[in-house]
């Protein structure tokens, strides 16, 4: 499984690629920062008295994109034509089986993310979107244009159950983005 | 449609990428040489007295990977989990609709390739495999390893109805590949 | 010849490179879309009652930049000092000789493009310029600047015999470019 | 801190770069797989009855290279001339301060890795070396040479307290490396 | 030493990298233009009656960044935490020792640059800053943003003893930069 | 002229590119090491009692490829079809004119290299070939193949008037190359 995870270093995030970022971050690059963000958010929530399992959240963050090692980062334009969720689910299951007795737990964690089954799974989804917007902002600050589409994710962050805790963070991003326009 | 075709320049051929070729050819790079090879093969067949519609073959070569502008080059590891053929068919149909009155013809040509419905469609499939092996050989000559898997396509070329006409070409490739091992 | 055509995948289009696009399209990338555009334009003209040999046009599109596999994409700054046309002509001739009995036809087609000897050759020249402008626009939309020079090609498109048929296409590009300024 | 962590996506791992891998993994790419490996190793140890704090281990894995966002991946050739450890320590401290009330804990975790103060810190060091060798092997399988130096890390893995649990994994790598020579 | 200098071709200038220029110039790229600029400036000064040793200036320009072959281009963010000057001094000394009887002279030249001990050393420092600003301007003209920080070097050029001779050059750059803002 | 020299950073050395090195050194990268090598060789010759003008040699090294900023690195395959020497001569002349009163001297220096008119010019030619072979060896050590052609330059080095002084250097390279085969 460690070898397969190497694919995540080689595979570009296709959303940026298709908008002309010629040498974009890898899936592993993205996953790394999602894990880092999850760490901070989970610890912050805990400090604020929310009952959250930080270990669980970190595991989900690390595993949530692993199936893309087989499926690749199928972009939105393609998801209209094929069932990415179903494909990743099957791939995740088969990859986790290699983890032996841990397989069941890992697949359960993966589903918590994919299907929003737990607080921790939903937090990683929040972190995943946040990470994407931070990256979008960085590309914009570098001079890249044509990335407006991505900012529709802002609305999803604002509707999230975690928004009240990280409002400043989210709106700070929104402000920096506006300054660039 | 011209704009969408621009995606084919940006999207890498994932087969090479996943085997460590860090800056591989684009889908458009590949499609270009498929068209060039098709041109030579079709003209050669005609010279040999085979009845073949060269125009038809060239059109198929140019259109055969166009749906990947939306679907991307989904690698073999993923095709086990999702129905690439079905997705590309639907995407091709929707892309060709933009071509107005020509839509029907183009989609028909696309299917001739995908489903092997015509001599010309099958010839482009032959050229498609040939192109991949030429590229594999070039990467091997550059020093890349780990590309053996691709050479299973040799068998498909040998079983093809066109093999007898281009035997020398196919076996020449096979010989050069062997020298590298 | 198929091996030599591989050079077109490796060689960057120097016009973009010299203006700071650090990882620009290859010559093959460009040639592919020229062929695609030619296909659409030729079929459209035919639908409009123009007598045009689509097969001929496609062959020209596929062959028109082949000599650059030996000469490379010598940029404008250099063409002032050396005779690119003459060099490509000689290189084309020697490359086509490898195509045996087809050599004569292919070289004839190549000259139809280079010297504008036929309707089909001139159409590919039109498609060649159109392709370059579409690419320029895409780079501009990505955030690249400094590409104004390329837009002088607009005038050549407007003076072309094909302008009346594809006026909407050409002016649509011009409009999108203006919005970026 | 999330913005600074973005540097880890942009910065190459200089060890590979200096040996001619022209487009190597980023620091974030590496950190991601270290976290993934840590997850598996820690869970495995726990299954084997070892008392280990998985959450702690994951946090360390995610934080262990963060200081490189300011210091960059200073290669071995440079470490002879400057005190990388001291620089990273100071940078880590200043970066973590931004994390407010969590700063103290994060810096403590960072030191557990750097100074081997805890079982979890040492496990991440083990995972860090393992990750590097997996990557070395992948580059070798791709065709890169000149990476023998890295394999001296093998000895460190063999001397580690964790070797007995992951002997098969380590020796499997060693075997695959030998086959390449 | 020639082999070690090869590192300068592989190592990116980290200042650009950290601001999002994904494929920036190498250290050798930079050093080359510093040498070229030094050549022109030194010859110009001489024509203006200034007593300057052109050979000495050129040698300094060629040698001034050589220690980075071992230390890499440690960015400003890191220099706060480690003593780059001291590290480069030691590395330079050890590299020059390989040059045998020339070692002493070369190390002396290196110090003239680093410590501003001679007119020639200070001229190369002037050329070094000039080169960086020319490159910053070129990236800005390409579309990159976020490079304002670098322009603080303008003040240093204006305070330099060489400013009166190359005022036009410096202010010309400043003007072109302003037009971009 | 400083701006035009920036092209040398952007333009790849096409010889490597055409043999599959996907991200090769730039012309400026090469020129930098030629200047460094020239510095050492010239100083060594002087130490050995040869009368040589080191300043002159360095100037030639820095200027010798400058015309490629307009002409690009036209590869051998193209030089059969076009007169590279003539083109570079004219371009060099026009570029140097911008250097005002220094133009004449610089053009003279350029010709000393191109036409081998002086000891210093011939030394830079020797350094130019040496640099290429060092680079070829480095690429071979990295794993790249297919570079044998370049080693025919070895014979030219052996026939050179400077061979007796740098025999050890040249034969050392030859030996390392043989070990790779």
Q: What characteristics describe this protein?
A:
homohexamer; 12 helices; mainly alpha; Hypothetical protein af1432; 181 residues
Give an overview of the whole structure.
6 copies of one chain form a homohexamer. With 181 residues, the first copy, chain A, is mainly α. Chain A has a single domain, classed as Orthogonal Bundle (Hypothetical protein af1432). Chain A contains 12 helices and no strands. Chain A has helices at residues 2-5, 7-10, 14-18, 27-47, 54-63, 68-71, 76-79, 84-97, 103-115, 119-142, 153-159, 163-180. In chain A, helix 5 crosses helix 9 (103-115), helix 5 (54-63) crosses helix 10 (119-142) and helix 9 packs across helix 10. The model of chain A has no long low-confidence stretch (mean pLDDT 96). The interface between D and F is small, with 9 and 8 residues. Chains A, B, C, D, E, F: It is an enzyme of class 3 (hydrolase). Chains A, B, C, D, E, F: Pfam families: HD_3. Chains A, B, C, D, E, F: Its cofactor is Mn(2+); Co(2+). Chains A, B, C, D, E, F: Its EC number is 3.1.3.89. Chains A, B, C, D, E, F: It catalyses: a 2'-deoxyribonucleoside 5'-phosphate + H2O = a 2'-deoxyribonucleoside + phosphate.
Span between termini of chain A: 43 Å
CATH class of chain A: Mainly Alpha
- Give me the CATH fold name of chain A: Hypothetical protein af1432
The overall strand count of chain A is 0
| Helix and strand element order of chain A | HHHHHHHHHHHH
Layout of secondary structure:
The structure is a homohexamer of 181-residue chains.
Chain A: H1 2-5, H2 7-10, H3 14-18, H4 27-47, H5 54-63, H6 68-71, H7 76-79, H8 84-97, H9 103-115, H10 119-142, H11 153-159, H12 163-180
Helix pairs in contact in A: 4-5, 4-10, 5-9, 5-10, 8-9, 9-10, 10-11, 10-12, 11-12
